[in-house]
Amino acid sequence: MKKPSLQELLVCRNLLADDTIQAFIQAIEQPDQPALQYTCSAKLIARAEELGLSGSLLRSYVIYVLSHDSNIAAQITELSNGKIGPSLYQAFEHDIALLHAVFSPPPSTMLPIKLLDDYTPTKKLSNEASDNLYTLLEKAHTPAATAAALLGYYRRYGYGDIASYRAFRWDKKNQLVGIQHFENIRLANLIGCEAQKEQLVANTLAFVNGKPANNTLLIGARGTGKSSSVKALANEYYTLGLRLLQLTKPQLVELPRIMESLRKFASKKFIIFLDDLSFEEFEVEYKYLKSAIEGGVEARPENVLIYATSNRRHIIKESWNDREDTQEELYRNDSVNETISLSDRFGLIINYLSPSQKEYLAIIDHLLRQNGINLEAEELRIQGLRWEITHSGRNGRVAQQFVTYYLGQQA
Q1: Rounded to an integer, what distance in angstroms lies between the CA atom of residue 44 and that of residue 39?
Q2: CA distance 402 to 194
Q3: Any idea of the CA torsion for 283, 285, 286, 287, to the nearest 10 degrees?
Q4: Alpha-carbon distance 30 to 144, whole Å?
Q5: Residues in contact with 81: Cβ distance below 8 Å, sequence separation at least 6, in sequence order
Q6: Order of strands across the sheet that contains 176-178
Q7: DSSP string covering 281-343, please?
Q8: CA dist., res. 402 & res. 384, Å (int)
Q9: Based on C-alpha coordinates, what's the Rg of the chain?
Q10: pLDDT tens for each residue of the chain, 411 residues long
Q11: Within a 10 A sphere around the Cβ of 122, how many other Cβ atoms?
C-alpha cells in the first residue's frame, strides 16, 4: 500500500511552508538521522510551550496551524459568508484524510520522544474559539467528521486572528492586529444606564442578525459608561461573529482602505470604534468620516458599522463667531451646517447621563460585591459620598476609582 505523503496536499499546502512541519517531513524521510528526529521533537516542544498545546503534539499542532493559517477552504468560507462548493469540499476532505493518516498515530511511533504522545504545557493558553474547536474534534473520529468540524469552525469564527480575537487595531502596515489583552467587561457590569444599553443592544443585535442597523453616536458626561458599553458588545456577541476595530483620529484618512479590507470578511460583523471623538475647526479628518458614513461614491460594506463616543453633541467644535453675522464667510448658514453635519449622519444618538446619587452608590455596591465585600448601606453612603466630594463629580469612573482605593486599603 502506498505510504501517504504530505506532498499530495491540495488545499492545505500552506502546512508545507511551516518550519516545524518541514522538520517533521525531514525526520520521517530520513529515519537513519537521529539528529533530525530530535530537532523536530525540540521544535514541537517549543511550539507547545509557546502556544499552550497539549495532548498528542503532532495532532494538536496541525490543528492549530489549520485553524490559524490561511487556506483556500477557509478563505472561500469567509468570502462567501459560510458557503463552500462541493468540489472544494471534496478537495478539503482529501487533505484531511491525508493528514489523519500521517498525524493520528502517536508521535512516538515516528519520533524517539515518548512525552510527545501526551504533553502537558507549563501554561495552557486558550480562547473560546480554539476551545470549541478542540471539543468538537474530540468527537470527530473520521476524516469526514474532522473536515466538517473544521469547516464549521471557519463558518462560525473565521480563521487566524479573526477567529482568535474580539478586538483589533489597524497598524502601520495597513493590516488588522488582534488585541491580546482586551478588557473583559460585560454589559451586566454597567449600572445606571439601562435604557441606553437597551437601545445599543437592540441596534447591535439587528446588525449581527443581518437586519438594518444605524451608525451610532454615544454622547454624554465623562465616565458614564459610553466606551465601556461599546467594548462590552465585543465580548457579548463574539460568538455571533461581532468584532471591534478601534481607530484613532489620524487613521480616519485610511477609512476607504480599511473598509475594503473588512469587506473581505463577509461572515463577520465589524464595529469601527472611535472613542472620545471631537474635531477642531482646522482638522479635516472628519470629512473622511462623513464620507464613510454616508455620501461617498463607494457604498459602506454591509458588515461594517461605526460607533463613536463623544462628550459633546456637536463633534466639530463650533465657536460663537460661527453664529455671528460679523464672520468673514459670506454664507453663514453653510458654516453652521458644516459643523453639525457630522453628528447628523449618525442614525442613532444615545445620551448617557450622570448617575443619580442612588445609581452612583449602586455602582459602588455592585463593584464591591464582585470582590466579595458587602458594606452596610450607611457606611457605603458615607464613604461613597465623601469620595465623590473630593473628586470630579459623580460617575461610573469615580465609583471605580473609589472601589480600587477601598480594596487597596484592605488588610
Answers
A1: 9
A2: 22
A3: 110
A4: 31
A5: 266, 267
A6: 176-178, 167-170, 242-247, 269-274, 304-310, 216-220, 348-352
A7: TT--THHHHHHHHTT-SSPPPTTEEEEEEESSSSSB---GGGG-TTSSSS-HHHHHHHHHHHH
A8: 7
A9: 27
A10: 455 688 899 999 999 999 999 999 999 888 889 999 999 999 999 999 999 999 999 999 999 999 888 899 999 988 887 888 999 999 999 999 999 888 888 999 998 899 999 999 998 877 778 888 888 888 888 899 999 999 989 988 888 888 889 999 998 777 889 998 898 889 988 887 889 999 999 999 999 999 999 999 999 877 788 899 999 999 999 989 999 999 988 888 888 889 888 988 888 999 999 988 876 665 566 676 777 776 555 667 889 999 989 876 555 555 445 445 555 554 444 444 444 566 677 889 999 888 888 888 888 888 888 888 888 888 888 888 888 888 877 878 888 888 888 888 875
A11: 7
Q: Provide the terminal-to-terminal Cα distance of the chain, rounded to the nearest Å.
A: 71
Q: How much is the pTM?
A: 0.79
Asked if 108 and 38 count as a contact pair (C-beta separation under 8 A), the reply is: no
Query: 73: closest CA among 136, 146, 139?
Result: 146
> Where is 144: in which H helix or E strand?
helix 143-157
Strands 167-170 and 176-178 turn out to be antiparallel
Tell me the β-bridge partners of 177: 169
What are the cell numbers at 150? Answer: 473544521
Q: What is the dihedral of CA 233, 234, 235, 237, to 10 degrees?
A: 80
Q: Which three cell numbers stand for residue 79?
A: 468570502
Q: Which residue, chain included where needed, has cell 488585541?
A: 179
The 3-class SS string of 25-76 reads: HHHHHCCCCHHHHHHHHHHHHHHHHHHCCCECHHHHHHHHHHHHCCCHHHHH
